[in-house]
Specification:
Distance between the termini: 14 Å
CATH superfamily of the largest domain: HAD superfamily/HAD-like
Number of domains: 2
Strand order of the largest sheet: 5-4-3-2-1-11-12-13
Number of helices: 11
Helix content: 25-40%
Length: 249
């Protein structure tokens, strides 16, 4: 019996229309184990998208922030220095299509260097590209700044994007920090994901489940593959069918 359930959002808990079904909301609210979200999205997005779901912790910005949803406060954070953000932008500005940076509740589009001067704490930078080869050529320069990069295909378009964050951050690291609050081990967790930013999480937990619609790289390291997609309420059905009534009220 797993003592905590963690789920990614886009491509996992959220359907393609960025909505969670009423049935899944009611199911999650009836779980008798803690439910945690682990996502690349910011806190503001989580509040809007998961309105109606009862849960305490959200791991956001791919592990850069752990947020207490009940107390409405940050309990862990690691942001990127303004100097590093400026250097990253200088590297990517002539190649990428659009660039955004994340704060706690908002995304800011970077139009020019002056925009960067007005920023508060920044947790991630996301640069969108029309071709995969465009961003691959920039990786070494970004890594040379002591930062980490994630490369993924955008869930909702045909574009690719590079996410830049502090070195050493990922969902697994944030989970391990959070577990001290519960007195649990990472082996006690059942987790769901669909993309490259879920690799460390699914590879570490007691039982990592890749969605039916997940990327092949994630399916290869997962303990199991959900028989249904995110558009079919795959997380809810997996818990019901694999864990039975003991997992929920």
């Amino acid at each position: 019996m797993y003592k905590m359930i963690i789920s990614d959002l886009d491509g996992t808990l959220l359907r393609s229309d960025q909505v969670i079904s009423r049935e899944s909301i009611d199911f999650i609210n009836g779980l008798n184990v803690p439910f945690v979200v682990a996502t690349g999205r910011i806190v503001g997005d989580v509040k809007k998208l998961l309105n109606g779901i009862k849960f305490k912790y959200a791991i956001t910005a791919n592990g850069a922030i752990i947020y207490d949803m009940e107390e409405d406060k940050v309990i862990y954070e690691k942001h990127i220095s303004k100097e590093a953000i400026k250097k990253c932008y200088d590297i990517i500005k002539n190649t990428c299509d659009e660039t955004y940076v994340s704060m706690i509740d908002d995304w800011t589009k970077i139009e020019n260097e002056e925009t960067l001067d007005k920023l508060g704490n920044t947790y991630t930078m996301s640069a969108f590209f029309n071709k995969e080869e465009d961003y691959r050529e920039l990786e070494d320069d970004i890594l040379g700044l002591g930062l980490k990069t994630l490369f993924m295909k955008d869930t909702y378009s045909d574009r690719y994007y590079m996410e830049i964050l502090s070195t050493g951050l990922n969902k697994r690291v944030a989970i391990e920090y959070m577990l001290s609050e519960f007195g649990l081990e990472i082996e006690d967790i059942l987790a769901f994901g669909d993309s490259e930013n879920d690799l460390e999480m699914l590879g570490a937990v007691g039982h990592g489940v890749a969605m039916k619609n997940a990327v092949e790289e994630l399916k290869e390291i997962a303990d199991d593959i959900a028989p249904k997609t995110n558009d079919e309420d795959g997380v809810m059905h997996y818990i019901k069918e694999k864990l039975g009534v003991k997992a929920y009220v």
